[in-house]
Write the structure tokens for this entry.
Amino acid sequence: MRYIEKHYDTPTVIQHELELKNLNLDEANLRNSETYAGKSGGQLYETVRDMPTFSALKEQMYSEQGGVCCYCGMKLEYPFNPQYRVEHVLPKETHRELVGEYKNLLLSCRATKEEVALRADTSKPKAQRKGYIHCDEAKGSQEITYSPLNRACENAFWYDLKGEIHYNNDEEAKKDIKTLGLDGEYLNKRRRIAIFSLLALSEDELIAFREGLQHPNSEGKFAEFYFVIIDAINQLLPAV
Ligand SMILES: [Zn+2]
């Protein structure tokens, strides 16, 4: 997982916050239970997502994340054929005051066509089918300790050469892996494929490749699973 730096001083965010206030949907207003009394975060979100600034806000989030899922690093298809979900880091069900606040929003992946098909395959045991649900969909209205809004997330997890996720001696991180379904079969397979081609590279090639992965490309995009691949390269290179 990588820390995502948010930019609060852009015209988009400033305009969005203004619109939230105008609709009494900002954090301060929603903390008052009399504002939209009885309305849940889910119900209020229906208004938030139709706000005029919301598309531009999503665009900004997509660019801040370099085009990949905030949790697993899978490439997001955006804005056409939407293969992303707007993720409320603190769940909108329990924190309705944050339903529209940019500081609580990230873009997460949505199930790929392949995953949808795998989930529907009832010949497989239920537990196995659960391995195709991850990120926002797995998290639902649960809370996590290490989100991409917490810098400590960068040291909480690491990936081995098979693409499997591990945690650094911390029960909260272990719990977060389960909550987010980051150890599921589908992600393991995709990550393993992303790492496999590295094995043919020389030391110099690995160093150059890692350098390229650390920054977004000329279109502002990160490579899919870039932080997974970086971890794998670090293990392939001799320790300095
Ligand atoms: Zn994801």
